[in-house]
Amino acid sequence: MEIFQATIEDLEGMSNLFNLYRIFYQQESDIEGAKTYIKKRLVNEDSVIFVVRDREVYVGFTQLYPTFSSVSMKRTWILNDLYVDKTARKKGVGEMLLQKAKDYAIETGAKSISLSTAIDNYAAQRLYEKSGYTKDSQFYQYELNLI
After folding, report:
1. Domain holding 109: CATH number?
2. CA R_g for the chain
3. Where would one find coiled-coil regions in this protein (predicted)?
4. Contacts 24+ apart (CB under 8 A), 94-100
5. Is the entire prediction scored with pTM above 0.90?
6. Is residue 54 part of a domain?
7. Is 50 inside any structural domain?
């Protein structure tokens, strides 16, 4: 297995994984929408996507979005998406992606990586905690839904 930063050449494989990720979160399959979304992220360079490929098959990805901490005056990253295909689960792909995200954050001088996951996504919670992530006990997370 190899892990690397996705480029426009990875659009097809990446779009298929992204579509499966959205389906996991109870969204309708929309491969063309997934392709358009991922293409915009890659072309505009407004996110960083790391993918894992096993031979020629894309088996996992994580997507990071940049943001900043005003208090620390440093860059931070939001690990917005992490997905491993069913066929590759329990093979270390998730750990590979988290380690690559951590290495990249360190390389870019970031203060931290933050993420959110579903309350009932116990497998992801175990993976994150095993990788050193801790639950936030100081702040509540709020969201204003505009749609």
Report:
1. 3.40.630.30
2. 15
3. none
4. 94/60, 94/127, 95/127, 95/130, 95/131, 96/1, 96/3, 96/52, 96/60, 97/3, 97/50, 97/52, 97/60, 97/61, 97/62, 98/62, 98/127, 98/128, 98/131, 99/131, 100/3, 100/50, 100/62
5. yes
6. yes
7. yes
Cα–Cα distance, 67 to 91 (Å, whole number): 31
Give the residue numbers spanning the domain of 63: 2-122
**81 φ/ψ sector (left φ>0, alpha ψ -120 to 50, else beta):** beta
Q: Name the nearest CA neighbour of 118 among 64, 82, 91, 90.
A: 82
- Cα(48)–Cα(42) distance, integer angstroms: 8
Number of structural domains in the chain: 1
Rounded-to-integer distance, Cα 85 and Cα 40, Å: 23
Neighbours of 73 (CB within 10 A): 8
What are the C-alpha distances in Å from 77 to residues 24, 60, 67? Answer: 23, 19, 6
Residue 90: inside a domain, yes or no? yes
Count of residues in the chain: 147
57 domain residue, yes or no? yes
DSSP conformational letter for 70: T
Q: What is the pLDDT of residue 136?
A: 87
Other C-beta atoms lying within 10 Å of the C-beta of residue 139: 6
